[in-house]
Amino acid sequence: MKHGPIALIDDDMPVVVLAPKDKVYEKVLSNIEEVKSRGGKVIALTTEGGGTISSLTGNVIFIPETNQHLTPILFTVPLHLLAYHIAFLRGCDVDQPRNLAKSVTVE
């Protein structure tokens, strides 16, 4: 959160925070407080039972708690859906993204 990213925080651009209940959870909460103090909006993804984060932001997506090695896979699904819906709302063609290089050319 230091230097560059903190300069981008404003009330027009939401900050997506991944906060699984692990050893850096408290540090992530501190970063959320820093974003909120600068007027930023936070969308948080956390594992179930992350009650502390709900008090910091009302925009929380809960992921089922699982083995720590599977957690990144579970976090990927809502992130893909979030990206899809944001692109759709912005009017982007989600089926044919711009600047996508084709690796196979069919003649």
Keywords:
4 helices, 107 residues, three-stranded parallel sheet, alpha/beta
Task: Summarize the structure in short.
With 107 residues, the chain is an alpha/beta fold. 39% of the residues lie in helices and 14% in strands. The chain is globular, with a radius of gyration of 17 Å.
Task: Describe the 3D structure.
- It contains 4 helices and 3 strands; from the N terminus they run αβαβαβα.
- By secondary structure, it is α/β, with parallel strands linked by helices.
- A 3-stranded parallel sheet has the order 1-2-3.
- It is globular, with a radius of gyration of 17 Å.
Q: Please identify the structural class as seen in this structure.
A: alpha/beta
Number of strands: 3
What gap, in angstroms, lies between the N and C termini?
A: 48 Å
Number of helices: 4
Helix and strand arrangement:
Layout: H1 4-7, E1 15-19, H2 25-37, E2 42-47, H3 51-56, E3 60-63, H4 71-89
Parallel strand pairs: 1-2, 2-3
